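Suppose you are handed a protein chain with no further information: no name, no annotation, nothing but its sequence. What can you learn? This example shows the usual starting point.
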Amino acid sequence: MADKTFDVVILGGGPGGYVAAIRAAQLGLKAAVVEREHLGGICLNWGCIPTKALLRVSEIRHTLERLDEFGLSCGEVKFDLDKIVKRSRQVAGQLSKGVEFLLKKNKVPVFVGEGRLAGKGKISVSKDGKEIDVLSAKHIILATGARARELPGLAADGELVWTYKEAMVPKSVPQSLLVVGSGAIGMEFASFYSDLGAEVTVVEVMPRVLPVEDEEISAFAEKQFKKQGMEIFTGATVEALKKKGKNAVSATIKTAKGKSEQRDFERAILAVGIVGNVENIGIEKTGVKTDRGHIVTDPWMQTGEPGVYAIGDVTGPPWLAHKASHEGVLCVEKIAGVEGLHPLDVNNVPGCTYCRPQVASVGLSEAAAKEKGHEVRVGRFPFIGNGKAIALGEAEGMVKTVFDAKTGELLGAHMIGTEVTELIQGYTIAKTMECTEADLMHTIFPHPTLSEMMHESVLDAYDQAIHI
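A reasonable first move is to predict its three-dimensional structure. Written in structure tokens, the prediction is:
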């Protein structure tokens, strides 16, 4: 069995792992990736990308149902679910092959199999229970990702009770659907199935939907979801899920008032968070520490074991592909001795939810800013005051900005409405560059665009808004 020596070996080929490998190669380091299943990881194959392909379909259907508003007409709108799912899988497959090409282009070998730490500077690669390779590296990066969390009494069976994987390849659209959890994953699936005609019920244990978002945005979102016909239970729990015949699941829902209700659904989706893949990777006899199912690292992604690093979802929230990619780049740049680096600031990591309406944010919510002792100035601007939004027929939404009243620092920005997942990067750049309200106020925004609302929200925080 030939020994293979590298500068860096990355365990996991997801958005953190493959990006780290490519950046390492660019820096002149000899890098390799160990991947057990699909290049691109969960995000590309079973998460971010294929779900957006599905949501694009529901967006189009929503528009087609409003054609009369635009002076257009057509016959009855129908859909072919098999084709919808097939397209989603093709998109994922195309991009996974793209990652394979990029790694080859950068001369990064991929070892297919299960990888685990096997002593200082060693990674053992196995397939079908048999060791097929042993890799050596001065630096090892754990980028093993995460998986769907399961709770007692709420186990997924893949048939009646789904995780995100089964929810992406349905054989039919259920007439009634229970979604347990109203985070990004839960609300994206709730939107998709609701737009395709399912009667959707969402149960969230926290007092509001999209609980990581600004409270005002969450309240706006809940009103929109209910307007679309969704039933929302907040401050509630699903105590049990049981099969009821061959095509139904019975749920015991404990409401915010403490009352238990028995409800039947054709299918249920569990979206109650994720847990890091820390098992079977050989960390038990090392200095690598875990906390609540995630690997603990320092600001440079170094674990408690010298020469072993961890990036991405396996290290904990925020569980976002772009955060993993950034950590991957930062980690290998630190290894390579690149100067002038800054540790990741999670307050500069944007979050996006592609439900209808879309939600996006970066930085502190208004409540969090106040809890941290900031005296704040808050600006808001509604979509109904924006010419482009009205022309698009998408006038439901708002932009909210939070500033430090004393320094003018942009503390946070929060949006809900069409295409806000594309707009949020403007505020993310502003936060990263430490822009003040004066910088943003004196920036010229093009007209007519949705981005003008970003300007108006800043102006509103300082009582200078023009169009409200």
